[in-house]
Amino acid sequence: MKRSRQDVLIPQEQIEKQKEYIQKIKAHYIGQDIQPLAFLVTYGCQQNENDTERLRGMLAEAGFGFCDSAEDADLILYNTCAIRDHAEQKVYGNLGALKRLKRRKPELIIGVCGCMMQQKPVAERIRQRYPHVDLIFGTHTLYQLPELLWQVLNTHDRCVRLLDSDGYIAENMPIRRVGSVTAYVSIMYGCNNFCSYCIVPYVRGRERSRDPEAILREVRQLAQEGYKEVMLLGQNVNSYGKDLAEPLGFADLLERVCGVDGIERIRFMTSHPKDFNEKLMETMAAQPKICNQLHLPVQAGSNAVLEAMNRRYTRETYLDKVAKIRSMIPGLTLTTDIIVGFPTETEEDFAQTLSLLQEVRFDSIYSFIFSKRSGTPAAKLDMTLSDEVIHENFDRLLEVQNDISRQINDSYIGRTEEVLVEGQSKTDANMVSGRTEGGKIVHMQGGSERIGTLVKVKITAAKTWFLTGEII
Ligand code: SAH
Ligand code: SF4
Ligand code: F3S
User: Fold this and answer.
1) Which end of the chain is less enclosed by CB atoms within 10 A, N or C?
2) What positions does the entry give for [4Fe-4S] cluster 1 binding (predicted)?
3) Is the pLDDT confidence value at 470 over 70?
4) Residue 45 Cα, ligand 3 centroid: separation in angstroms?
5) Are 54 and 179 in contact (CB under 8 A)?
């Protein structure tokens, strides 16, 4: 049954109520004459990072400072990801290691939130095996952090707040962003695609779009604060707006965002190939602020595997769309995601993924070995290839792609690119780094006064993962 908009939007009174808890927490620590420090760790995608920026925003308003180590913290919070087993194992490992710290420092508060917690058996495992974890909440209760934290501070009991829900939209929460030049803006949450290997639809709920006015308000605010670039986020941005009272497509939203003065670059992710359409291509080509960059996850090169993945496009339609967008936007930077070792994948299927990489010549790829996610349809399938073969295939894939990436990057040597300087190099104080319009990372000599400016850079050297250049 379709939920009404009212059921999706968290009423503003509830957000205000959280702000009251924020003030209570602040007073609590002032009363004790301590400045509490929080250590936040984020796993997973940009949406999760954006969620952490909200967690940080609430904590900052409650008087928290932030630190980079568990040892110094009064509150440790893991915002978790459930996409692959590897990400989950890291969280278990980290939590296990905190047992001793908590024994030494009983007033330390340890919390776990995010996508992992939306899987019942996982949350239950944490509850039972990690009694030193005080705070457990999921993606649908993120905005309630102040209330939950206040409860823990007062009762010294652990607090678990999990909700089995199709998900909400919480507007006007505080936010404290990581960068000062480019900002993430989530335009929608959840996913309805149910690719057969993927856990996201189960842990993030149904697709729901923020109101365009709310998004534009946020982008205008960012422009006022001096941000130059926004990255619009959604699991499948092409579905944006389908659930709004007055339906508005993603291309229309992009056009409106282009109208915000001060924002000079707009990127977005992720586009699902089945929904990547001509209207969006035309908008990308027509709007100078939309960067000539596209992340279009293909996952596999074989139609049999694509069908088993429930991706609902074919190799041929994917290649057609790539050819079309490249003809409309010459010089487009194209990246993708690949899964190696999907259960039904045979050697012949894998060979087709390799041939697709050679045919398309992506600028770079994000490749993953299939990870069985319990509750998804693919988890019930028998594996065709052995672990050993899958790992060998994974290495072959990287070899093929690294060559291509390097060749493409080499072709940038001698060219002049417009680079938005995003920050100082971590290793060299005389170096800054930024991105080309296509999204390639460039390192160059320069001082911090360059940060936030667009500069023309002559590319002098190339590696597989980045470029080096001189500001002209
Ligand atoms: N919504 C985005 C992807 C989000 S997850 C999209 O549809 O493109 C990011 C990537 O993780 C996916 O593109 C996929 O390549 C990978 N992934 C998802 N589930 C996985 C699994 N069970 N095992 C391995 N990789 C997976
Ligand atoms: Fe997962 Fe598919 Fe949704 Fe992407 S589109 S989040 S891969 S179900
Ligand atoms: Fe992971 Fe959740 Fe993102 S499962 S990839 S953090 S939506």
Assistant:
1) N
2) 45, 81, 115
3) yes
4) 5
5) no
